[in-house]
Amino acid sequence: MRFALTPEEAAFQEEVRSFALHYIEAGLDTEEEERRSGRHAGPFSPLELQFYKDLGERGWNSMHWPRAYGGQEASAGMSSILSFELEYHRLPQVEWTVSTFAPTILKNGTQENINLWLERIRSGEVVYAMGYSEPDAGTDLASLRTSAVREGDSYVINGEKIWNSGAHHATHEWLAVRTDPSAPKHRGISVIIVPIDVPGVEITPLWTWGGSRTNITRFTNVIVPVENLIGEENMGWSYIVGALDYERADIGARVIGRLRRLLDDLVHYCRGAVRDGRVLISDPAVRRQLAELEAKVEVVTLLTHEVCATVDRGETPTVVGTMQKVMASELRTELTSAAFELMDLEGQLDGNDPLSFMAGEFEHEYRYAPVQRFGGGTNEVMRDIIAQRGLGLPRTAR
Ligand SMILES: Cc1cc2nc3c(=O)[nH]c(=O)nc-3n(C[C@H](O)[C@H](O)[C@H](O)COP(=O)(O)OP(=O)(O)OC[C@H]3O[C@@H](n4cnc5c(N)ncnc54)[C@H](O)[C@@H]3O)c2cc1C
To answer: Domain 238-390 maps to which CATH number in 3.20.20.80, 3.40.50.620, 2.60.120.20, 1.20.140.10?
Structure first.
């Protein structure tokens, strides 16, 4: 079977490409690389703000939302074209708030939740950080202890979140809290939206090996109105699990743009680099290695199509999205390691070195790629999900 874009999709791809080229000419790809590498961790620059505003004005922030809420009811295939092209051109991505939390509000939120948050998310006024993980609750997220106690028309929140990426840019937290300590641990959890700028929220940076910034965020007697509860109280676990399905599927769609770019750049390098008097790509072993990588990138691309088709059928892509997340994230590490071998010491030059290839792209990728293996849940646990929910195998003994 041969997969091809529809005329509408091909036209959209062209539109996104010229949009991308406009921002590359303005220097946004360099700014984004600086941000991902951690050399720039400050507030958004005027160019970054312009980019996000532009995405909102074009309706690309809410393509897949219902028309009633300002969306275009675009297919998942169209959304994945946008993700792919932005990542391929090394530009910032559509916010997680748009791609994972907004669909969760639409699916599980009350009408009041939708009225309060959707338009503000669409316009870019509201950006959530994902507040799930705690020092003692990562994979075993249902053990989370951050508490929200109802007092009249408010909740009082106390606790600590770790790996709270983006909290230093976000306007609000999408916070998983325990609202019923007496219920079984999966049943007493709720999701509450917490403004970042209220008294009692304290954010401390945490730097990764890849150079990017994440955070520890502490909540001390933070007061929020009950209207900030998403959906029903104590039903948060199912909302979190659903949002994670969207997140994993989206991680895969983004990574595929990056994988294709990395492989294109590696082939370009091998065509130009000379080793022992001959061009690298003329070596049969090198050609075989590149061909194997090409086949793997193609497999992950096909899985991306399957995820999109699943979403467009109205189903949640739990198993296929998880498969795609595992394969895409591990291929990213494999591809970068292969590049390191092929480029020899040259691959290790970082972006500050004028002799580095593509501003140290592979050196940085080598440090950044591992995050993808545990972001959205670790791949060991993802394999359990594929085994149990995809293949119907029994639960692992714990
Ligand atoms: C850079 C970065 C950014 C992140 N951003 C966010 C964010 O924005 N918001 C957020 O909420 N979280 C975020 N996370 C947290 C991420 O989702 C967790 O790291 C992940 O869920 C694993 O939890 P843990 O680190 O506590 O490891 P653990 O749960 O302690 O796991 C440690 C190891 O044990 C393995 N393991 C644990 N349980 C099992 C099991 N049952 N079966 C098999 N193996 C198992 C794991 O696979 C892993 O290898 C981020 C993490 C990192 C590193």
So the answer is: 1.20.140.10
